[in-house]
Specification:
About 40% of the residues lie in helices and about 10% in strands. By secondary structure, the chain is α/β, with parallel strands linked by helices. Keywords: Signal, Transport. It comes from Pengzhenrongella sicca. Belongs to the bacterial solute-binding protein 1 family. This is Carbohydrate ABC transporter substrate-binding protein.
């Protein structure tokens, strides 16, 4: 489970993992990384010859991804094990984010860690224990990912870690039936989004519903809203400056972004459909925030791709189903900023077997193998920004939508900002002040208070 989801107590994709991966004979006649009619996964060992014979070698993988999401990961490693002879030792630990730093500083790191944020990656590199990614990994990243993703896996100009899984946050959930019956069209610009909101309101309905309750993490959905609007109103370069505190949190651009969110969430005519007034946003859990779409009491809900798992069992999530989502548009149709998250495979050893496994994890072969296994095991819930990923290997419509957004050549991807800010800000002041803001605090006081919480060094 990615850090964003674990820290914010997001419900995991429902359903058991009653799935056994069976590797049939690895021969050059098999079809690589696919599934046969019985559901067994086959491996074309010709695809693995480049890695050589690694019999007797072990690669230790350490991660915060635990059950039930760990099984598809381990199963995706089996073709590499079967065809090279190496053994991959997978350890999932809910305390990963703390323990990986302890292990790195103590000189006892794993061979590879699946790191859920660029900020943590930077801290691990600073320990001196991490090693630069080999040339083959860099070549795969150059081929299959954009420069923005490679930059997140780099520290001070040196490339360390290839991206792995990804998530898309820039989505708006809606009812396809309501849109068809009411003649609403999916917006392609921010102006279109506001026009749609006003049209829904003029039809006598409350357009938006939202919830930001999340226990000690209450307020985090507002941070995602604000980050999306920072990207859209000020652009990726200013967004980067803001996240890195090269401009203050209470800059004019920051105020404009939060006010842009307020045009929706603090307008009593636009919220909170089926749940209450503006202040009810703070007392509604984020899990419940979008459910009124199914009841017809609200029309729009901004939330990430993972939200599909929060709808009740039996809900059809599809373009022609009960609910679906569309991309939160940019200022123009040509603008395509995307807010999201992801993981990175960081190595602490340059042993040949480690470099070989790193290279496999950075390939389109692994991305397609992992996508196929996740689709068969859990019905989906995993995507990658790897452009070599065949969207046809994703059976979940939301996964297909999100992967298509990530693969769009016009997409400019940016990582969740609060996850990259110091903890005193990103997972404390930002959440708390956002909650105060939705319950009545002014934009200026909100951004000033967050700026005051930024550590001096």
């Amino acid at each position: 489970m990615s850090s964003i989801r674990s820290r914010r107590a997001v419900a995991a994709v429902a359903g058991g993992l009653g799935f056994a991966l069976v590797l049939t004979a690895c021969s050059s006649g098999d079809s690589g990384g696919g599934s046969d009619a019985s559901g067994d996964t086959t491996a074309d060992c010709a695809d693995f010859e480049v890695y050589g014979d690694l019999s007797g070698k072990e690669v230790d993988v350490y991660t915060g991804i635990v059950t039930p999401e760990d099984t598809p990961y381990m199963d995706s490693y089996k073709p590499f094990e079967e065809c090279t002879g190496a053994k991959i030792v997978y350890t999932g630990d809910k305390a990963f984010e703390t323990q990986i730093l302890v292990r790195a500083k103590a000189g006892n790191p794993p061979d590879i860690a699946i790191v859920p944020q660029p900020g943590l990656l930077q801290q691990l590199v600073a320990t001196g224990a991490a090693v630069e990614a080999p040339a083959d990994v860099a070549a795969n990243v150059d081929e299959f990912w954009g420069e923005d993703w490679k930059a997140y896996g780099s520290v001070d100009g040196t490339f360390y870690a290839a991206p792995s899984g990804a998530s898309v946050k820039s989505l708006v959930w809606y009812s396809p039936t309501e849109f068809a019956d009411s003649g609403y069209e999916v917006p392609t610009t921010l102006d279109d989004l506001m026009a749609l909101t006003e049209q829904i309101q003029s039809d006598g309905k409350v357009p938006w519903c939202a919830g930001i309750g999340s226990g000690e993490a209450t307020g985090w959905p507002i941070t995602d809203w604000m980050e999306d609007f920072m990207l859209r109103l000020s652009g990726p370069e200013v967004y980067d400056q803001w996240v890195n505190h090269e401009i203050p949190f209470n800059s004019p651009e920051s105020e404009a972004a939060l006010d842009g969110v307020g045009d929706y969430l603090k307008n009593p005519d636009f919220v909170n459909g089926g749940l209450g007034d503006v202040t009810s946003i703070a007392t509604t859990t984020f899990q419940d925030g979008g459910l009124p779409i199914l009841e017809g009491t609200c029309s729009l809900h901004r939330q990430a791709s993972f939200y599909a798992s929060n709808f009740p069992e039996g809900t059809t999530v599809a373009e022609d189903g009960d609910v679906f989502a569309f991309y939160l548009p940019g200022e123009t149709e040509e603008d395509h900023p995307v807010l999201g998250g992801g993981e990175f495979n960081l190595a602490f050893s340059d042993a040949p077997e480690v470099q070989a496994f790193q290279t496999y994890l950075s390939s389109d072969l692994w991305a397609n193998t992992k996508a196929t296994i996740s689709s068969e095991a859990t019905g989906g819930g995993w995507i990658s920004a790897n452009t070599g990923l065949d969207v046809a290997n994703l059976t979940n419509p939301i996964d297909q939508l999100a992967a298509g957004i990530l693969q769009d050549p016009n997409t400019v991807f940016r990582f969740d900002g609060s996850d990259m800010m110091p903890a005193a800000v990103g997972s404390n002041a930002f959440w708390k002040q956002a909650t105060n803001w939705i319950t009545g605090q002014s934009t200026k006081e909100t951004v000033d208070n967050i700026e005051a919480a930024w550590p001096a060094s």
